Amino acid sequence: MSILGLKKKQPKTFKVKVITMDAEMEFSCEVKWKGKDLFDLVCRTVGLRETWFFGLRYTVKDTYAWLKPEKRVLDQEVPKDSPITFHFLAKFFPEKVEEELVQEITQHLFFLQVKKQILDEEIFCSPEASVLLASYAVQAKYGDYDPNFHKPGFLAQDELLPKRVLMQYQMTADMWEEKITAWYAEHRGIARDEAEMEYLKIAQDLEMYGVSYFAITQNKRDTDLLLGVDAQGLHIYSPNSKLNPNKSFPWSDIRNISYSEKEFTIKPLDKKKDVFKFYSSQLRVNKLILQLCIGNHDLFMRRRKVDSIEVQQMKAQAKEEKARKKMERQILAREKQMREEAERAKEEMERRLFQLQDEARLANEALLRSEETADLLAEKAQIAEEEAKLLAHKAAEAEQERQRLEVTAMKTKEEKRLMEQKMREAEQLAVKLVEQSERRLKEADHLKQDLTEAKDAERRAKQKLLEITKTTYPLIAAYSTPPAPPEASDYESASTRLDFKDSDMKRLSMEIERERLEYMEKSKHLQDQLKELKSEIESLKLEEQQQQAGLYGLHSEARGYVQEPVYIPHSNVCTFTSCCYCYLNLITYQAVELCG
């Protein structure tokens, strides 16, 4: 057999990657597998029993398609990549999620898909509803709100609101988180499946929930329209409005739907109503529309019939599972409450223990401080006792010194009194000397005046004698007979009178000079006495100041402090005549002036 004659061996398996809303799975499939085989494998892997809501979707060029269960996988227009990628998604949506969704996994997959469609803005949602839905999504993810654990910023990495809502209001991420957390805190006690169900119950009332949109035209020349297929029926929309349909065809009013190439025909149940026709641009889209219409219509009819035994069993099991989980949650809640109470009691006991330990530590520290304080006080008391003894001794010494000083002060006062008496006597003596000096001065003036008058009289007498002599001698010469000479007794009497006056003047001058010398000696002697008295007064003042300072220092030392005595020197210039020192100086000065 030649090599060219050998046929190329075909692989018996191919790789498939299935992406769910929360996981990715890879399978090795046989070449002969149909779409149903792969779909059942995925459902078994996920644990899904409500398979009629879901399908495997893949991308074809610029649109998407659902894997057909009756045809082989490789015979459909699936991508030729390896592995082939499929998305496990909800193909049909229930009318009432609370009644139709039985399994928790079904509910969880719907929750994830609807949440993604809202965040991707495939389903329009108002800002208020977006915040409420986000709070249920946070409750489903994080459980009950705990302010000690859920600190500000714990939602920073979560995508919870559509971008359109975030751009609509000028609010920061922290402000949005605060609003979501306010709602989230009110959902305390709601389990994850309950929070997801609440999310879906709010989402199913949104206008675009569960609607698949397709671009159509009513005729070949008409403007574009939108066809919406959902669990309720068919709806016709304007291209710019997907919220409010222009026309609706409920499944209960549709008798038949058919298409021929690009033309669709909707025949109402009421034959009197007109048949509605529309056109689609692609044959593949027409097949997809027809497939969705058939599936939604079958589910619509199925809801209005009695549930099958399988569904009844599923609902019973789900009910039992819910009751069991509810009981478990209640038990868990009670245990959690008891644990929280036990933890609070433990924390309270630990806090009380710490408090008691702190109190014991503080008491020990206080005891140690008290012992140290007692020792210190005992030492201080001993020191104070010694100081008291020393002060008592010093007080006794001070008392003795005070008594001695008092005696000395009394002596000083007596001496001072005697000195004052001497000073008064000296003042009186000085006054007498001043009066005597004034009187002697006046007498000296009178004597001087008398002496001057006597000298003037002597001079006039001598002048008259000369004149008489001069007039007498010419007369004697004129007469022949000379005159008789004067008698000796006359000359003697005249000379005697003159001599008497000269001797009196000399004697008086000598007497004045002698008295002046005596007065000067007395004045000098008085000045010396005044100086001695002055020095004695100064020494007495100094001793008195020293005694007062010593007495004050002893009293201060007896009271516990010592102050240096302050010596105030006598002013060099005193304006008071009552000061003994200055008055003696004044008297001395006057005496010197008088004597000098």
From TrEMBL:
Membrane topology, as annotated: Peripheral membrane protein
Superkingdom of origin organism: Eukaryota
Keyword Protease found: no
UniProt key word Cell membrane: yes
Residues bound to a 1,2-diacyl-sn-glycero-3-phospho-(1D-myo-inositol): K68, P69, E70, K71, K287
Keywords, alphabetical: Cell membrane, Coiled coil, Membrane
Compartments it resides in: Cell membrane
Domain FERM: 14-304
GO CC annotations on file: plasma membrane
Organism field: Echeneis naucrates
Protein name per UniProt: Merlin-like
Alphabetical list of PANTHER family matching this protein: MERLIN/MOESIN/EZRIN/RADIXIN (PTHR23281)
Sections of the chain in a coiled coil: 315-464, 516-550
One Gene Ontology molecular-function label: actin binding
